[in-house]
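Anyone able to model this chain together with zinc ion?
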Amino acid sequence: MSDRVPAQLRTRARQRAGDRCEYCLIHANDVMFSHQPDHIIAVKHGGKTTEANLAWACFLCNRFKGSDIASIDPETDDLAPLFHPRHDLWREHFRLEEGQIIPLTAVGRVTARLLRFNSLKNVELRSLLQLAGRLFVPD
Ligand SMILES: [Zn+2]
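re: yes, here you go
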């Protein structure tokens, strides 16, 4: 969905996020592919191209999220919304531990699973970045 975001909004989304993925926390300088603006609520679900509906996302999170806005919680089998970077606080839904993103809520569980936060490669990368002091949990 990044092709429809005007440059000015794109820049604001990047700056607001400090050029970090608002889902998996990876900084744009630490991955090969560019971060992108993500429509938190996809246009096909009625989401608008506004600051309030844009997140800054790494290529992988954006790709795995696609236009999804919810998924089934593996613990309860109930429908749960995906993490919403403009409404939800990261630390209320996730905890960072030795490179792993541990989900704390239904929102956390569906987001971590759908966006594949804890694939081996992602955990290895985040472990190294955490050790190097390059990974920060937002306030
Ligand atoms: Zn990400």
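Residues 2-131 form one domain.
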